[in-house]
Every structure is written in C-alpha cells, then in structure tokens.
Automatic annotation (TrEMBL):
<dbReference type="InterPro" id="IPR011604">
    <property type="entry name" value="PDDEXK-like_dom_sf"/>
</dbReference>
<dbReference type="InterPro" id="IPR011335">
    <property type="entry name" value="Restrct_endonuc-II-like"/>
</dbReference>
<protein>
    <submittedName>
        <fullName>Uncharacterized protein</fullName>
    </submittedName>
</protein>
Amino acid sequence: QPLDEQWLLAQLQQQGFAEHWQPILLAWMQVLLNTSLDDSGMTLAALTPQHKQAELQFYLPINRLLQAKELDALVKRYDPLSARCPALDFHQVQGMLKGFIDLVFCWQGK
C-alpha cells in the first residue's frame, strides 16, 4: 500500500520540518518498506495489519538481582545489533521489567 503523502506532510509540519523534506522522506520510506529482509523476499510492506503488532508491551519478572553485565552479555549473545552497542549500565534491579518491542509480526505462519 502506498504511503499517505498528506499524513507524512502533516507529521513533518508538526515536528517543525520544512515541506521540501516530504519527497525525500517519502522515497526513503518506500525503499525501507520494500527492501527484502531475508532470502524469501519478505518486506515490511508485505505485512498485513492482522499479522503485525507495533509497540507490543511486555513485562518480565526478575526474581533475583539482575546486574547490567549479565543482561548485556545475554542480549549481545543473541542480537548482532546489540553486540555492536556500548555496554548496558544500570543499578541492580529486582522485581518487574517493563518494555516495548517495536514490531512483532507473523511471516509464513511463524
């Protein structure tokens, strides 16, 4: 589905950006949405509303003290992008961790 040009223009104006950015951002977003994410040709543009959930909230119980070093090692082990990021730095925590996953989707039944 094509991007809504009027919506994009309204977003730019709301954030204080000049109108001349609209065609540039529109082209950039079209490339992002239509770029294949894997060998099967999966793209973000191919996701239907019923197969995706944006900003999925989650709660994760933490039953014992969690240290930044432990969590940092875990996420860097399984996420290549996180592996390139600076180390996490926070005080020990225990209780409930609340967060949001930007995008969760179902593709080919998975």
